[in-house]
């Protein structure tokens, strides 16, 4: 079945690859919509920093992976992504009221990144490409699935408030395009990686269809006026 689909899509290989690259760069700007929401409401209520911090960590890891592969394009794209996500983090930090908590999260992200970079430096050069690539894939799945960690609260409050819709929507488009490209290349690693990502993104988009982005205001009963004697 996949071989048939790969044969059908083969003439469009260059087009699909170009579109996948363009939407990947475009996805990096999705955080600007969240920053705009933060600016409009004047604080970070209902919005977490993890999408931005995750973007920083992912860019750092992919940057290292680019050096391992000696892929100039991968290095350039992730340098750009790293710069953007650092800007998003600075905007978030400027508007958050809980700066100590954010500092702790930044420290944790920095320590995690440093540990993995150190591992990549010490690993056997013959094994590092495959193993470090697997680690990056696992972390990518974690980032994509992270909005679902609050599923209980989403169902309880019947609201998707706090879920980063621009990032989820753009992520769905990006992973779908890379899924098509993986089919064309008949690359099982690329195919499985993006198939899982598409399923995760699709399940999150379904929540936006079911629940509103803002919780419904609770109906408070007005106190009855006392009758005059």
TrEMBL record:
GO terms for cellular component: Golgi membrane; plasma membrane. It comes from the Eukaryota. Pfam families: MtN3_slv (PF03083). InterPro entries: SWEET (IPR047664), SWEET_rpt (IPR004316). Keywords: Cell membrane, Golgi apparatus, Membrane, Repeat, Sugar transport, Transmembrane, Transmembrane helix, Transport. It is a multi-pass membrane protein. The chain crosses the membrane at residues 15-36, 48-69, 75-95, 102-120, 132-151, 163-184, 190-211. It is found in: Cell membrane; Golgi apparatus membrane. One of its GO terms (molecular function) is sugar transmembrane transporter activity. Its main location: membrane. Mediates sugar transport across membranes. Belongs to the SWEET sugar transporter family. This is Sugar transporter SWEET. It comes from Spodoptera litura. The gene is LOC111352029.
């Amino acid at each position: 079945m996949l071989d048939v689909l790969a044969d059908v899509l083969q003439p469009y290989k260059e087009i699909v690859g170009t579109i996948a690259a363009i939407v990947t760069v475009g996805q990096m700007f999705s955080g600007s919509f969240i920053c705009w929401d933060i600016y409009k409401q004047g604080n970070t209520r209902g919005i977490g920093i993890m999408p931005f911090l995750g973007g920083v960590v992912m860019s750092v890891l992919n940057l290292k992976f680019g050096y391992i592969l000696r892929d100039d394009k991968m290095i350039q794209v992730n340098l750009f992504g790293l710069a953007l996500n650092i800007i998003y983090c600075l905007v978030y930090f400027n508007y958050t009221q809980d700066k100590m908590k954010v500092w702790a999260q930044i420290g944790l992200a920095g320590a995690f990144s440093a540990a993995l970079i150190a591992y990549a430096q010490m690993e056997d050069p013959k094994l590092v490409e495959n193993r470090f690539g697997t680690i990056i894939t696992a972390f990518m799945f974690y980032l994509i699935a992270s909005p679902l960690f609050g599923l209980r609260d989403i169902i309880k409050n019947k609201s998707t408030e706090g879920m980063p819709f621009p990032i989820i929507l753009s992520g769905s488009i990006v992973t779908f395009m890379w899924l098509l490209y993986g089919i064309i290349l008949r690359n099982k690693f690329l195919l499985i990686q993006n198939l899982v990502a598409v399923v995760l993104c699709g399940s999150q988009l379904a929540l936006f269809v079911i629940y509103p982005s803002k919780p419904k205001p609770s109906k408070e009963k007005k106190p009855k006026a006392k009758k005059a004697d």
